[in-house]
């Protein structure tokens, strides 16, 4: 894998167009994607055909993680320079520790990108990721330090590990004595935030960004949200 400085910034034309089109195919509107590219400094590896997510802290490049855009690629994620080497930090730690309204903690950078894309303009929330479903003590320390900086903090891991997700939120709340830590069960039909239909993810993010619940079970809450929208 190449160094980050060798990889071009994602753009709708040229050698990076396939990566740009891939994100559009996942439901991200082009205007929101154009705003997210500089926010996350998204790159593209045209040789590996992967969208690249730089990993940084305090302006220091720690490497990157890259997602394959081809469905048949067996290994969806590759990390540079060391496989799994980003478990000492969370995704976008500087943005997280700047604070905001609601903090969404998901598994991977792609999930964080999609959750951020789903935020309506003016929503001062932030999404970060553990680079997996099993956070390290170092990563948990980042989240613990961020809890006082947000109205609510939601752990929102993939649907197949919701038990772990709920316990993690409960353990964080108990360890910190903070009442503003909760969990989101996105529902088995959605699998994970990045695989959720974009309009559905927008509704979930909007609901959680206004909620004080410590447990959101989206398969139930969505009925109220979409039923209410249909009555208008």
Give the key terms.
alpha/beta, DNA primase DNAg catalytic core, N-terminal domain, Dna Topoisomerase Vi A Subunit, Chain: A, domain 2, four-stranded antiparallel sheet, 232 residues, 2 domains, five-stranded parallel sheet
Quickly give the structural class: alpha/beta
Summarize the biggest pleated sheet.
Answer: 5 strands, parallel
The CATH architecture of the largest domain would be: 3-Layer(aba) Sandwich
Compute the average pLDDT.
94
Q: What is the β-strand count?
A: 9
Strands of the largest sheet, in order across it? 6-5-7-8-9
Identify low-pLDDT runs.
none
Output the CATH class name of the largest domain: Alpha Beta
CATH topology name of the largest domain, in short, is: Dna Topoisomerase Vi A Subunit, Chain: A, domain 2
Distance linking N and C termini: 52 Å
Separate helix tally = 8
Strand content range: 15-25%
Using the CA coordinates, give the radius of gyration. Answer: 17 Å
Count of domains: 2
What is the string of helix and strand elements?
HHEEEEHEHEHEHEHEH
Q: Helix share of residues?
A: 25-40%
Global geometry: globular
What does this structure look like?
The protein has 232 residues and is of the alpha/beta class. It has two domains: 1-86, Alpha-Beta Complex (DNA primase DNAg catalytic core, N-terminal domain); 87-232, Dna Topoisomerase Vi A Subunit, Chain: A, domain 2, CATH 3.40.1360.10. Helix content is 36%, strand content 19%. The chain has helices at 17-25, 30-40, 93-96, 109-117, 137-146, 162-176, 198-209, 218-231; strands at residues 43-45, 50-57, 60-68, 77-80, 102-106, 126-129, 152-155, 181-185, 215-217. The protein has a five-stranded parallel beta sheet with strand order 6-5-7-8-9. The radius of gyration is 17 Å and the shape is globular. It starts with 16 loop residues before the first helix and ends with a helix. The mean pLDDT is 94.
């Amino acid at each position: 894998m190449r160094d980050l400085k060798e990889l071009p910034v994602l753009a709708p034309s040229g050698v990076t167009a396939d990566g740009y089109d891939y994100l559009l195919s996942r439901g991200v509107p082009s205007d929101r994607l154009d705003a997210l590219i500089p926010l996350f400094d998204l790159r593209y590896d045209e040789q590996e055909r992967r969208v690249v997510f730089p990993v940084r802290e305090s302006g220091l490049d720690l490497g990157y993680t890259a997602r394959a855009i081809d469905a048949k690629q067996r290994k969806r994620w590759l990390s540079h320079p060391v496989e799994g080497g980003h478990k000492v930090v969370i995704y976008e730690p500087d943005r997280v520790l700047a604070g905001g309204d609601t903090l969404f903690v998901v598994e991977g950078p792609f999930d964080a990108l999609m959750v951020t894309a789903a935020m309506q303009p003016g929503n001062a929330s932030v999404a970060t990721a553990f680079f997996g479903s099993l956070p390290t003590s170092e990563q948990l320390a980042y989240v613990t330090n961020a809890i006082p900086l947000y109205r609510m903090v939601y752990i929102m891991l993939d649907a197949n590990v919701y038990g772990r997700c709920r316990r993690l939120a409960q353990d964080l709340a108990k360890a910190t004595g903070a009442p503003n830590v909760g969990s989101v069960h996105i529902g088995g039909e959605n699998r994970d935030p990045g695989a959720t239909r974009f309009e559905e993810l927008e509704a979930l993010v909007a609901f959680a960004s206004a909620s004080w619940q410590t447990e959101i079970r989206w398969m139930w809450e969505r009925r109220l949200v979409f039923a209410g929208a249909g009555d208008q």
